[in-house]
Amino acid sequence: MELQTNTIKEIKRLKIIPEFEKSAFTIINHLQNSKNLLLVTHTNPDGDAIGSCLGLYHYLTQKNKNVTFILQSPIPTNLQFLNGIDKIHFLLNQNNFKISPDFDTIVLLDLNDISRLKTLRDEIELSKATKIVIDHHQEPKDFADYYLIDTTASSTGEILFKLLRKDCSINWTKEICENLYVAIMTDTGNFRFERTDGEVHRIVAELIDYGADPVKLYNEVYNKIPFNAAKLMGLGYSKLESYYGGKLVVMPIRHKDFLETNTQEEDTEGFVESLLSIDGVVMSILIMEVVERNEIRVSIRSKGDYSARNLALNFGGGGHINAAGCRFQNADFEVTKQKLVDKASEILN
Ligand SMILES: [Mn+2]
């Protein structure tokens, strides 16, 4: 594939990592030559996961490919407006999904470890399709054929933008641009988190030029908290706990809180991030009881060098330095909470 002169100029404004550029060319060529593609992302998908998959979905259908995008979890309410949601194939509580041998390529986005795919893991390992990972998480696992990884990138959406611009015949449709914009906006906390640099702004500026409406997209994503979710947030805030001189706050959400407000797990979207706006807080933990899976789910956020990821790693979880999570099966809520608070002292003190 040949680059147009103006494309080269544009790329020069962005940071160039030779290895990344090489992988991007290999992968975009491979995508052009694929016919049947399967798109996969992690469970409990966020805006970056869904936006990136849908952005790629629209690009590939523009190239007349057969594309199947599967999700193992429901979509958060505030992301249900995204263009292409109706095309998603949901595998909720389905343990026997078979990956058809017709797929020649599987693209895994915002994910670098197939153990996060639970029941799909074996199917993906067994599949003969070419596997491509597009991601920004640290320590990718060795299972795929091609990797497009930049652990310094704000989001998978940012990486995907840099991949797609390698195709000089791409038509930057509104569907592609809106999805990529939402991917980047959500993973940067609306352009406030650590990795929000000039490059991120240059990329979203282009997406806006191509038709993504920043006001509309902000309103859809951030000004759509369901009333019941707001009540749940209120319950969580009323039980907020503070530790280590206010550096750590913990929001506990119990099963009865979900029942009382008629809400679900997905309704806690944004809660843990919101806690970082409390004065003096450098780490926040949302700990919730999910009785349907006999699980305690933990989300951790942090500022600067305080590592949410290191805390999560202690308990078999993972993530980024400032956004991570872990899960506990068949565990006692209070005991688990105390374990997290105790371990956090090593990071905060
Ligand atoms: Mn991401």
Summarize the structure.
By secondary structure, the protein is an alpha/beta fold.
Which terms summarize this structure?
349 residues, alpha/beta, Diaminopimelate Epimerase, Chain A, domain 1, 2 domains, 6-stranded parallel β-sheet, 6-stranded mixed β-sheet, 12 strands, globular, disordered N terminus, binds manganese (II) ion
Can you describe this structure?
The structure is a single chain. By secondary structure, the protein is an alpha/beta fold. The chain folds into two domains: 5-222, inorganic pyrophosphatase (n-terminal core), CATH 3.90.1640; 227-348, Diaminopimelate Epimerase, Chain A, domain 1. Helices cover 39% and strands 18% of the residues. The protein has helices spanning 5-13, 18-33, 47-62, 120-126, 156-164, 174-187, 198-209, 214-222, 227-238, 255-261, 271-274, 308-313, 333-348, and strands at residues 36-40, 66-71, 89-90, 105-109, 130-135, 146-149, 241-243, 248-253, 283-290, 295-302, 318-319, 323-329. The strands form two sheets. The protein has a six-stranded parallel sheet. Strands 7-8-9-10-12-11 form a six-stranded mixed sheet, sandwiched between helices. Strand 11 and strand 12 (323-329) form a beta hairpin. Helix 3 packs antiparallel against helix 6. It starts with a helix and ends with a helix. The relative contact order is 0.10. Bound molecules: manganese (II) ion. Manganese (II) ion binds at residues 48, 110, 136, 155-156, 187.
